[in-house]
Every structure is written in C-alpha cells, then in structure tokens.
Amino acid sequence: MAKKHRIEISFDECKGCGRCLLACPKKLLAMGKEINKQGYTAVEVAEPTNCIGCGACFYQCPEPGAITIYEIVED
Amino acid sequence: MSMEKVKFGRSKVFFDPFNRRPGPIKKNMHYCPGCGHGILHKLIAEAIEHYGIQQDVAFIAPVGCAVFAYYYFNTGAISVPHGRAPAVGTGVGRANPEKFVISYQGDGDLAAIGFNEFIQAANRGEKMTIFFVNNTNYGMTGGQMAPTTLPGQKTTTTPFGRNPLTEGYPINVSSLINTLTSPVYIERVALTSTARIAAAKKAVYKGIENLRDRKGFSFIEVLAPCPINLRMTTEQLNDFIENKMTEFFPIGCVRDRSAETAVGELPPATIHEPAEVMAKLFPLRQEGGVADDFRNDSEIFNRELRIRMSGFGGQGILSLGHNFANMARLRNFNVSWMPSYGPEQRGGAASCAVILSRGVISNPMVDNNCDLLIALTQMALDKFGHQLSDNGILIYDRSAMSKPEVKGNQKVFGLDALAIANSVGNPKCANSVILGALAVILKKYAPLTEGDAADYDKVYREALTESFGSKPKVLEQNFAAFEAGKAAMAAEL
C-alpha cells in the first residue's frame, strides 16, 4: 500500500511567492485569501488528502520552515 | 494507530528561531518572496547536515543579499567586505586546516569587485567550496548591471539594455575557471523546475562532499531567480533562466575530477617559527662584530657623521652605502641607511644617505652639513655638492668630471674607481675601491688612530663576508679592489 503524506504550510511563514503552486504535480495548493502577519497572502493547502510526499514544493520554497511534509506511518 | 514523522522540514543546520535577526520575524529569512537565495540556503544546509560537518564549517558571506547568512546558519560564520570571501577563506582555511570553508557569493561580488581574489584562490586550488549565485544583476543595491547581465537586458544602470559594444558580454565564470588546472569540480545549475532543483541538490551535495574529503577547489554556479529586481513572476523567471540565461550560461557539469582526486590529507602547517625565517632570510655567514662595550677611540667618532653617496643607478652606490653602514653597525654604532632611486634598476640618479652615531639618530635624512660626499657623476655632484660642510671630504670619480671647486676647508680627492675595479677583473667592485681609498683618506684626515685604521680593514672584511660570504669569488675580487683602492689613494697623497 502506498505511503500517505500530509503537507503543512505555516501561514505566517509563507511569503506568497507561489513557487510551490507551480511545482506541485497534484496541484494541491492554492493561493489563499487572507493576509498573514508579515503582510503576504499565504498559500493554503486546498486538497489535503492526496499529497504524495514528493517534496517538490518543499525544495521550491525559499523559506526554511514554511512547508513541512509529514509521512504518515501506520502501525 | 498512526504516527507522523517529518519527511521534508526545516534543517537542523538552521538556527530555530533566527534570534540573530533583528525585529519581530524570527522564523523567516530576510530575502524577498521567491528569491533563489532561500532555495540554495536550504540545499546547502541539508548537505551540511547530511555530511555531518556542521560543527566545523566556516561559512563566509561577503556584502550582498546573503551578507546576513550568519543569522541563519548555525555554523561558524564570517561576514566580510565585498568580494573578499575567497581571500578571507584562504586565511581561515590555512590557519585552521581542520575546518571546512564555504564561500557564498553573488555575481556583483565574485565576478566584479572580488574577481581577483576569487580567481587566485581558484588557481591555488584552495580547499574550499564556492557557491556563486548568478541572477544577472546587483540585487541588494537595486538591480544595477552586473558582469553577468545579458545583452539587451534592462537594468537600472542600463535603461536601454546592456549594449555589448560599450558594456561587453556576460562573463561566463565557470568556463573561465575551467581554463585553470587546480579546480576539482565546476558545475552550473539552475533553480527553476523541480528537476533542475533536484540536479542542483546533487551538485550542492557533491560540493560539500568534496569539502568534507578535502579534495580541493569546488565551484558551483547557481542561476537563481531575482523576481523583484527583474520584475518577473515565477513563470516568467523560469522562462528567462531556461531560455535566455542558458544561451550564455549553459547548464551542466563543466568539470568533475572528484573521483580521480585523492581524499586530501590535512595540509602541513605552513606557519614557520620567526627564528627559522630570520635564519633563512639573513643567514649568519660569519661571527662578525665585537663585544658590546667596544668603542673605536678616534676623536671623530664622538659626533654624528653624515654621509651622502651618489651616482647613477647600477654603479653600486646603494651597496656602497649599505656596506659602509654595516661596517659601522658591526662596531656598535647606531646607523641609518636611506636609499633614494628611480624605478629603473640601471641608469637614472641613485643616492643614499648614511648616518652613524653613538647616540640616537633622530632623522635619517642628510640634506646639509654633510661630512663626507661621494659623487660618481657630474649630475650627482651638481645635485649634492652644496650639502657638503665647509670641513667635509669629497671623493669624486675623476673619469666622469673635472676637479670640483673647493669651499672653505673642504678636502677633495679624485679617483678612477671604475678603471681600478676593471683592473681587478670586476667593474662591480668599484664600491670596494672607494672603501679602500676611504681607508687611506680617513686615516690621514679624519684622522683615525693606528688601532682604528687597522680595525677599518678588519671590519670591511667582516661586512663584505656578511653580504657575499656565499660567493667566494666575488669576495676575493672585492678584497683585491679594496687593496687596489688603498694603493691608488696612497700614491695620490
């Protein structure tokens, strides 16, 4: 069975450059509506369930911790 | 039950939070949205973590957007002046050979102001890895033209576009250093698509691996997006880098000698003991000198003696003064020797001022009250003749000029120094001829005591041996010239 993953975007760490949107092969991400405390429109995870954990968005992101991808380990 | 573990997340090589960064934002870097620096920082941090060298990295970032890298990297870090990172890195690496030097530079920094430091470090094959961020403009200062700006590209300093006829073409740094022998690894990567970033990651890993294995100089050029200064969206930037920049900066490996380069040993310490250096530079060729309390007893030595020697370059004027000063030094005088000459090694005017004193010499210049003037050319005499005191001694080269006028109690002696030197087989010995003649003159007119006159000959040999001890033939010729000079002057008097 394929491993499951979860992507988490830190709302206040995102600068809204949008590099991750373009990179995501599953197009799971979308530009949000709200402005964060740095003054940027942050990206949000539109479809949280289908992340394949490829890391494309993580490596496109210029911020060290704005994107974190978790692997879900079933017991 | 299910558990979550981080697959991709903040590297442990970054501080968390960024406490060194002033202001309220402690989780983010200062870079503009979409900047390539952040992407590259993450790759480097990950590679440092992967190879386990965090504790020993010296991360050097010069002035430029990345000057605050020390806010972020939890490694050793130095911010240095614009362009000087490879020079500082050389110093850090050589003084601390167990450390790993990373230099992180932009295109204005590396390819313009710091190009010399960079290319010399590359040529020496310093054990460092350089990350070169090429975004075709000066980012930090507001998007001026850089050496890497493309032809036709508009910047704030090329508002009509870079014109190759007046501003030249982009400098292809990776190709340039590929002409050098020393670099081990040179690759150009781009931060555009996921595949390009994956390739960049591989290159960064190799650069850090080479660093860990001390293989030598690794250079990774990174074509990086600068969305704000180039006024482009991410799509436009990807297109610009992939289609415009690569025309001048083709992506790919330029050189990789990592595999055939042996894992480096720590270089031997290159710092020498001061005594060792002194012995190498100034070998002691004989035990000259006298006891510390020795004093020549002639009356004349109780006051400061001011001497000017002059002629044209190549006559040995400076050596003459140097030898005489050395003779005095070997007899416990304080001496100064102040040469003055043009840029040419032969010809032109040369002179030197020598002062010997039992007291402190407060000024090494001789411009009046000269006790002894040696002039080997008419030009020298015209220039310095007026400096001779009324009781001074003048020695001139008879073959070069007619007998000068005498003022007051001045004593004037002519000598065919060059002809005599030729007669002993070496025209370069003319200064020894003069020192020989001087022995006779000083004995009679200074005057020197019998003991000091004998000591003059002895100290002359000591001083010459110090200078030419390793060349017995030269020493022999000089001794002969000295005796010939003495004989010639004795015959005159």
Quantity of strands of chain B, as a count: 16
- How many domains is the backbone of chain A divided into? 1
- Radius of gyration of chain A, in Å, reads 12 Å
Task: Report the sheet-strand fraction of chain B.
Answer: 15-25%
CATH architecture of chain A, please? 2-Layer Sandwich
Main beta sheet strand tally, sense and closure of chain A: 2 strands, antiparallel
Under CATH at level 1, the class of chain A stands as: Alpha Beta
Q: Gist?
A:
The complex is a heterodimer of chains A (75) and B (493). Chain A has 75 residues and is mainly beta. Chain A is 13% helix and 35% strand.
Question: How is the secondary structure organized here?
Answer:
The complex is a heterodimer of chains A (75) and B (493).
Chain A: E1 4-9, H1 19-23, E2 29-35, E3 41-45, H2 56-60, E4 67-74
Antiparallel strand pairs in A: 1-4, 2-3
Chain B: E1 2-8, H1 36-51, E2 57-62, H2 69-72, E3 76-80, H3 85-95, E4 100-106, H4 107-113, H5 115-124, E5 128-134, E6 137-138, E7 144-145, H6 164-167, H7 173-177, E8 185-190, H8 194-212, E9 218-223, H9 227-230, H10 234-248, E10 252-256, H11 274-281, E11 305-312, H12 317-329, E12 334-341, E13 349-357, E14 370-375, H13 378-384, E15 388-397, E16 411-415, H14 417-423, H15 430-445, H16 450-468, H17 472-492
Parallel strand pairs in B: 2-3, 2-4, 4-5, 5-9, 8-9, 11-14, 14-15, 15-16
Antiparallel strand pairs in B: 6-7, 8-10, 11-13, 12-13
